[in-house]
Specification:
It is a single chain. The chain is mainly alpha-helical and 553 residues long. The chain has a domain at 404-551: Reverse transcriptase/Diguanylate cyclase domain (Alpha-Beta Plaits, 2-Layer Sandwich), CATH 3.30.70. 72% of the residues lie in helices and 6% in strands. It has 22 helices and 5 strands. A 5-stranded mixed beta sheet has the order 2-3-1-4-5, sandwiched between helices. Helix 7 runs antiparallel to helix 8, helix 10 packs antiparallel against helix 11 (218-235) and helix 10 (198-214) packs parallel to helix 12 (238-254). The radius of gyration is 33 Å and the shape is elongated. Residues 6-13 have low confidence and may be disordered.
């Protein structure tokens, strides 16, 4: 499945006439050559191109992407440049122009090394996989698809990996491994089921329907095709609509309903001709020839000739094999047995070659599957190790609270963020009273246990969006995010009381532990550095005035 380049959602809307009006206004503006205006113009061209692409209007999409590319190039916006060049490669793929697509993608990979953009790298690798899949090099395609999927953990977009999973399903569909094909399509569908990307949903459901046809589950396939058709209509995607109609036509023919099958396939063929999608045109012609062998033999001869010409011109070998086989059958019906033999031999030679390629592909895919499983296991192990190291680098090993590094990161980002009405961010500086005495009396190891208990008490009494940090020694900082002052007073006072009333005797007879806290908020202190200083001063004020208390003001 070729990824439709990007979402058409933008601040400019998606109405074609409205977008065109905005372009005209910008071009007539005297400031239309400054960088901001050029960037805005490029974004509108790009949005307009995406609308046309999603509707399979490739000529107009190509024109608008070229205009967007020109504007992005003038302002040296490499994200936009890479996006538009990849979109042009996607258009080549949709038209079946594999050599042109490959050339563009090779240049893009070089550009991505200089200007890395993970989301676009994912799409480029996916498109490279499609090129190899279309050229019959399925193991190579799988490698590119897995390279693309390896980036999914860095992407916050479920649609992107869903396209790649669907393409993996297609690979296994080609080698008739329908269980794996079904598995990958189901994984893809699970990823995007809750999104509103109707194009992606329609394509993946279409893929599931095709697999059910191959496994003989025609009623289930029909249900999925109808669902895909509804989604394609919502997306106004003519290619998808035609694809679902063609699928339904095949099912009708398999059930013996030749007239309704012919009607559906003829409608699909007409749409594919308008869109100039050569591979789909050839596929529709083949299905119509199967029907017209009996209904309209003269038309069948004309259609098979056109299908053969398209396949030979574009290198659609598997469809060409079917065309040769059908033509041999047609010639035999006409009594032209020499030509029937000729086309049967062509079919046999091509089928043998294609079958040999499929067998080799299957062997290589099996080997590759084992290698990829090993790589995946190593990758998951490394990922877990990386997550562990990251956790350890941001947390105090003794208490599990965040460390100074995490404190700096979290508070620097969160302190000045806007809060809800009448709420503010708060920091509480907590210091365990007479902790040196505890260490000197019972040992430092015992003191560590006290720290762990205090940390647990705090953790259990703050909310998920709050945070606890060990500031050093016996000091902790509690960050209470976006809270009413009254709520903070209640929470911090409760923590102070819970520390005092904790069952410390379970650790050591006669042990008593208390803490003193000072609190500051973002309403009175806009700087986190100043807020920490104020909280620290208030905490020490509490120490001087008897300890075991909270000082708010």
């Amino acid at each position: 499945m070729i990824e439709k380049p990007g979402s058409t959602r933008s601040r400019f809307g998606t109405d074609v006439s409205e977008l065109q009006n905005k372009i005209n206004k910008l071009k007539n503006n005297s400031k239309s050559t400054d960088n901001e205006s050029l960037k805005e113009l490029a974004e509108i061209y790009k949005t307009l191109a995406q609308v046309h692409f999603r509707q399979s209007n490739y000529n107009e999409a190509e024109k608008q992407f070229t205009l967007a590319l020109g504007a992005y190039t003038r302002i040296k916006n490499y994200h936009g440049i890479i996006f538009c060049q990849n979109a042009q490669a996607s258009i080549c793929l949709a038209r079946g122009e594999l050599a042109a697509a490959k050339s563009k993608l090779e240049k893009l990979l070089l550009l991505l090394k200089k200007h890395p953009v993970k989301e676009l790298e994912h799409v480029v690798l996916n498109n490279f996989g499609i090129v190899h899949e279309k050229n019959g090099n399925l193991p190579r395609a799988v490698l590119y698809y897995h390279r693309s999927l390896a980036l999914k953990y860095e992407l916050n977009n479920p649609v992107l990996p869903s396209y790649t999973l669907h393409n993996l399903a297609n690979v296994y569909f080609h080698v008739e491994d329908y269980s794996k094909s079904l598995k990958y399509n189901e994984m893809a569908h699970e990823l995007i089921a809750e999104t509103d990307d109707y194009n992606a949903q329609a394509t993946i459901i279409n893929g599931l329907a095709q697999t059910f046809v191959k496994t003989g589950e025609l009623d289930k396939a029909r249900k999925f095709y109808l669902n895909a058709g509804e989604l394609a209509s919502k997306a106004n995607n003519l290619a998808q609509i035609a694809g679902t109609q063609a699928g339904l036509g095949k099912i009708e023919f398999m059930k013996g309903n030749s007239v309704s099958a012919k009607k559906l396939l003829t409608q699909s063929l007409q749409i594919f001709r308008e869109l100039k999608e050569q591979e789909n045109i050839a596929s529709c012609l083949i299905e119509l020839v199967r029907i017209n062998q009996k209904l309209d033999p003269e038309n069948a001869v004309q259609q098979i000739g056109e299908a053969i010409d398209i396949c030979k011109l574009n290198g659609f070998r598997s469809i060409l094999a079917s065309a040769y086989e059908l033509n041999a059958s047609l010639k035999a019906i006409q009594g032209d047995y020499s030509k029937a033999y000729f086309f049967h031999k062509l079919f046999h030679d091509l089928f043998r070659e294609t079958n040999k390629t499929n067998v080799l592909n299957q062997i290589e895919l099996n080997k590759l599957s084992i290698e990829l499983k090993s790589v995946k296991n190593q990758s998951e192990h490394l990922q877990k190790q990386a997550q562990k190291h990251k956790y350890e680098s941001l947390h105090d090993h003794l208490t599990g609270a965040g460390n100074r590094r995490q404190l700096d990161e979290v508070l620097a980002k969160s302190w000045v963020l806007n809060t809800s009405q009448d709420k503010s961010n708060h920091v509480a500086m907590l210091d365990i009273d007479d902790f040196k005495h505890i260490n000197d009396t019972y040992s430092h190891e015992f003191g560590d246990k006290v720290l762990q208990h205090v940390s647990a008490i705090i953790h259990n009494n703050i909310e998920d969006d709050d945070a606890l940090f060990r500031y050093g020694g016996e000091e902790f900082i509690i960050f209470l995010r976006d809270k009413y002052k009254e709520h903070v007073e209640e929470v911090v006072s409760r923590i102070c009381q819970l520390i005092e009333n904790h069952h410390w005797q379970d650790l050591q007879d006669g042990l008593s532990v208390t803490a003193t806290l000072g609190v500051a908020n973002s309403e009175e202190q806009s700087s986190i550095e100043k807020a920490l200083q104020v909280a620290d001063e208030r905490m020490y004020h509490g120490k001087r005035n008897g300890k075991n208390q909270v000082v708010f003001y």
